[in-house]
Design goal:
The complex is a heterodimer of chains A (about 180) and B (about 325). By secondary structure, chain A is mainly alpha-helical. Chain A is built from ten helices and no strands. In chain B, strands 1, 2, 3, 4, 5, 6, 7, 8, 9 and 10 form a ten-stranded mixed beta sheet that branches. A three-stranded mixed beta sheet of chain B has the order 12-15-14. A two-stranded antiparallel ribbon of chain B has the order 11-13. Chain B folds into three domains: about 60 residues, no CATH class; about 120 residues, Jelly Rolls, CATH 2.60.120; about 70 residues, 3-Layer(bab) Sandwich (Phage tail protein beta-alpha-beta fold). Classes of the chains: A mainly alpha (about 180), B alpha+beta (about 325).
């Protein structure tokens, strides 16, 4: 079960998660008053987890937007919001259209910045665990022994690390919010 | 491991998802744990999404740490002026197990720091560092280079955000290796070449070994094939359209694997477009096939799929001559 899903997880790490903050910001700004942003994002990940292959998707970022779009649309239809369709499609077209290259470069820098500040917060143990396991191929048990801590501590350090990364990835970037403009 | 509850609170869902992702990735699960994970995933659709997200987060964390540790970058510039001290530090860091690649990376970092004393600010990949990618390709970053790597089932895509990088591309003909620098794309399957970022949209490509296909924006069918020793600088200024070397006034960038769009184009002409960008040539053996018009959007790097569609359309069939594809009339 895990293996077949792993290439999807790799892809999400490359193409989806790095854009989460951007999608969240946009969603909150546009639709925050009508939908629960957290729920929409969760639902988007659920839909993505159902993909059996991602080979047909050329841009994860655009795909993420489209998924979020269809979730919001579904929610609207459910809530029977009148005339929502005609109104929204114009707005969606606006956003899904890929932004100009310099903006995307700036976005890429923000993603990198987010990642770096999260990496800087990782504990020494987390780093050592990753190096020992992934470079030296030690088992979890051997890693714990090598570091002189319990397996439980090894696991907890990794869990805390992942939590920091995920928090950093979803963090609202006020500067980005202003720059991408409320248009 | 039954301490993972099934609460529906979104924070708890995330927390549980991370626990499971860490356990699954580090193979520390018993058969019982695996069952518990399966049950947890089945209990709520949100669990599946959160689990995927947590796994991706774990991957990002691991890659980030490995990239930093492998191409161990000095945290400040003075730090790396003495490669020997640096090596000792690395050896100490890794409990006496010195990896050759780490030592080499450290030396490169040292050398570059000498020639490039004031690089700012210290970033994860901002000094020369050698990185091995998942597909076996090796990237050497220098001049404040930053890259973003995206590997999927059918492409290996690297975005050069800044600086210069040398790529030793591992051979994999099924997955083109594409480096994007601004609006410039350079694609190879197994070769050695460097790409340097030029301004906002440009790039300079230098081929050391093999051959590399270079194009700008979505104009892959007008790509130039560079061979060992060739250099090409494309500096596509957004407001300049008179740069002779560059196809400067072009539409916005497209995905790395470009498409060939055909709108009532005779097959003979369509085939010529494919043949210009692929070493695998398509041959039309009967002229009347060449007159059939085709409509469609095709991946430029997949002549096989195109030939198949073309053969069906023309009522012909395919045969192969060495690496080449022949479209001929059915007997």
């Amino acid at each position: 079960m895990d293996d077949e899903n792993d290439s999807i997880a790799e892809w999400v790490a490359d193409e989806i998660l790095p854009h989460e903050a951007y999608v969240r910001n946009w969603l909150a700004r546009r639709w925050g008053h009508l939908v629960d942003v957290e729920e929409v994002i969760q639902d988007a990940y659920y839909r993505i987890s159902g993909l059996s292959s991602v080979n047909h998707i050329s841009s994860g970022r655009a795909y993420f937007f489209k998924t979020v779009q269809s979730i919001v649309m579904d929610a609207m239809r459910h809530a029977k919001v009148a005339n929502i369709r005609g109104l929204t499609e114009i707005e969606w077209d606006y956003v899904i259209d890929d932004s100009p290259t310099p903006d995307r470069i700036a976005e890429g820098r923000q993603e990198l910045g987010r990642l770096q500040s999260a990496l800087a917060q990782l504990t020494h143990i987390s780093r050592q665990v990753i190096v020992l396991r992934r470079i030296h191929g030690l088992s979890q048990k051997e890693t714990a022994k090598h570091l002189g801590v319990s397996e439980h501590i090894v696991e907890n350090n990794l869990v805390r690390g992942v939590r920091k990364i995920l928090t950093a990835m979803q963090e609202e970037d006020n500067k980005a919010l202003e720059e991408s403009g409320g248009k | 491991m039954n301490d993972i509850s099934t609460s529906h609170d979104s924070h708890t869902v995330q927390q549980n998802a991370i626990h499971w992702a860490v356990r699954a990735a580090h193979n520390s699960m018993s058969a019982q744990d695996k069952d518990a994970l399966r049950n947890w995933l089945a209990a709520d659709t949100r669990h599946q999404g959160a689990y995927l997200r947590a796994k991706a987060g774990l991957k990002i964390m691991e890659r980030g740490v490995l990239a930093e540790e492998q191409g161990r970058i000095p945290q400040n510039d003075n730090d790396a002026t003495d490669p020997v001290t640096k090596d000792r530090r690395i050896i100490r860091r890794f409990g006496g197990v010195a990896l050759a690649s780490l030592a080499i990376a450290a030396c490169i970092a040292g050398l570059v720091t000498v020639t490039q004393p004031s690089l700012s600010p210290p970033m994860a990949q901002s000094l020369a560092a050698t990185q091995k990618l998942k597909d076996g390709s090796v990237v050497t970053l220098s001049h404040g280079a930053q890259i973003h790597v995206a590997m999927t089932g059918d492409t290996r895509k690297i975005t050069l955000l800044s600086g210069k990088a040398v790529f030793h591309v591992a051979k994999d003909t099924t997955r083109p290796f594409v480096v994007q620098s601004g609006a410039i794309y350079a694609q190879a399957t197994g070769t050695v070449y460097s790409v340097q970022r030029m301004g906002t949209l440009g790039g300079a490509v230098h081929v050391t070994e093999g051959s590399v296909l270079v194009w700008a924006r979505d104009e892959r069918e007008q790509a130039v094939l560079l061979h060992a020793g060739d250099r090409l600088t494309l500096d596509t200024q957004p407001n300049h359209s008179d740069n002779a070397q560059a196809q400067a006034s072009m539409p916005l960038p497209q995905p790395a694997v470009a498409k060939i769009s055909l709108d009532n184009v005779p097959l003979a002409q369509a085939v010529a477009r494919f043949n210009k960008v692929n070493s695998r040539q398509i041959i039309i053996s009967d002229p009347e096939i060449g007159e059939v018009e085709i409509v469609g959007l095709f991946n430029a790097n997949n002549p096989d799929r195109f030939a198949k569609s073309a053969a069906i359309l023309a009522g012909g069939e395919l045969s192969y001559e060495g690496r080449n594809i022949v479209i001929k009339l059915k007997k």
